[in-house]
Amino acid sequence: MSTLPTARVGYTALRVPVIGLGTAPLGYAWSDVSESQAIETVHYALDHGVTFLDTAPWYDACLIEERLGRALAGVPRDSYVLATKVGRLFTPDKHPVLDFSRAGVQRSIEGSLERLQVDQVDILHIHAPETPEQYRQAVEEAYPLLADMRRQGMIRAVGVGENHWQPLVEFARDGHFDCFLLAGRYTLLEQGALHALDEFYGQAISVFGAGVYNTGILAHGTAKDVVWYQYKQATSEIITRTRRIEMACERHGVPLRAAAVQFVKAHPAITALVIGAESAQQLEESIEALHTPIPDAFWYELRSAGLVDGHAPLPVQPAS
User: Does the pLDDT of residue 173 top 80, yes or no?
Assistant: First the structure.
């Protein structure tokens, strides 16, 4: 089994590798990912040191948790770190429900444990409340339950999973969280979360950087007929900005995917990258991207051209 460097989650004793597998792509209805391919991807991850697995009941109406559970059957429980989420679940007839009540969270956890075929998970994230009322319920009911579970040793860390950084600032103010999962809001194309990441770092809240490819554009570039950015067709402004980054990549011989991965990982608040993959090959490409040499001149060109925030940490070699 290959190994990857690990880092501690917040102030906990839990450690995760620098890359985690985001399992959401392993079976969405619009994809052609078979169960056998999903299981192969999970096993490839574990065999190559990607022993941090992130999932949620919300992903394709619980199908992903079920597939992950079957993939992990027979795998020693202490050989991987498992994270799932609460607050977004489905009724037995697959009707989506957002429920951050104590009872709803308890039902969500029980369902996840059954689907994942495990006795416990390591990390539980509150999963993206949408309204002020849901946020308040998450803080007043979901969070105290998860904090109690952490105190009792039933879980090892409490977090929040979000597609936006602003709610995470509020959560950090209203509770004691070990980690946040932030998807698509601190990337090579978008650094609006920079100040928030700086705050989380100062508070010793680990951030798992997800959505590092902004739904595809930073993995595949702009050459495709349809270019996706944050689950929508990319605007002309985003395409133009990406093309400028691509031209810098060409000048310095840098794969765009490698630049996307390494830029996010350079921020000290980012404890791990959670990267979605539909196949072992896709995951292999992301692992290779993290280790691809990139000249410092490339990063300084992006900064001087205004293509990344001037205050964003760059993955450059320290001055001797």
Answer: yes
Residue identified by tokens 């770190």 is: 81
| Residue 314: Cβ within 10 Å count | 16
Say which DSSP state 78 is in.
G
Cα separations (Å) of 22 from 50, 51, 55, 246, 288?
Answer: 10, 11, 7, 25, 17
Block residue for tokens 């196949």: 279
pLDDT tens column, 179-238: 999 999 999 999 999 999 999 999 999 999 999 999 999 999 999 888 999 989 999 999
Q: Output the DSSP codes for 154-219.
A: S-SEEEEEES-SHHHHHHHHHS--SEEEEESSSSSS--TTHHHHHHHHHTT-EEEEE-TTGGGHHH
Q: How many CB atoms lie within 10 A of CB 266?
A: 14
Q: Identify residue 302 by its one-letter amino acid code.
A: L
Residue 158 belongs to domain with CATH number? 3.20.20.100
Q: How many separate domains does the chain show?
A: 1
pTM of the model: 0.96
Rg, the chain, Cα only: 19
Sign of CA dihedral 113, 25, 51, 175: negative
Can you tell me the distance from the alpha carbon of 65 to that of 88, in angstroms, rounded to the nearest whole number? Answer: 13
Please state the φ and ψ torsions of residue 159, each to the nearest 5 degrees.
Answer: -140, -175
The answer to whether the beta carbons of residues 56 and 22 sit under 8 Å apart is no
Biggest CA-to-CA distance, the chain: 62
In a domain, 315, yes or no: no
Would you say 180 and 200 are in contact if contact means Cβ atoms under 8 Å apart?
yes
> Would residue 56 count as lying in a domain?
yes
Those residues with Cβ within 8 angstroms of residue 197's Cβ, 6 or more apart along the chain or in another chain: 165, 186, 207, 267, 269, 270
Flag whether 180 is in a domain. Answer: yes
Domain carrying residue 237: 15-304
Chain centroid to Cα 56, Å, comes to 12
Is residue 153 assigned to a domain? Answer: yes
